[in-house]
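S1.2 Input.
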Amino acid sequence: MHSNSLVELVKEALLDEVFSSVVYSRLANLHRKEPLKSKLSKIADVERRRAKFWSEFLRRRGYKEVFVKVNELKLFLYLAAFRVIGLGLTLRVLEMSERDAVELYQKCWRTLN
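S1.3 Output.
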């Protein structure tokens, strides 16, 4: 696979991680009860660190700061889902997204090897 394909995969991974970090952070802000609020905040931090990893990955390959814009409509839908179907089902939807992220990371790995 060509290196441009790898860069596109990494940009997609970066966008996914940034989006996830924002969603978890917002859910933590909406959820008032501890210890769940703290757990959601910690997950948001993990997602931010992953985003930083991918951003550094691109920087080390000569790409300047990659601007990532969160899809506000998608974010609104996740937060609306939280209010309508509750945290448990919203987290299940996010978990499905995490599975997609793992597949994306596998594609990146195969591209590198």
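S1.4 Remarks. The chain has a mean pLDDT of 87.
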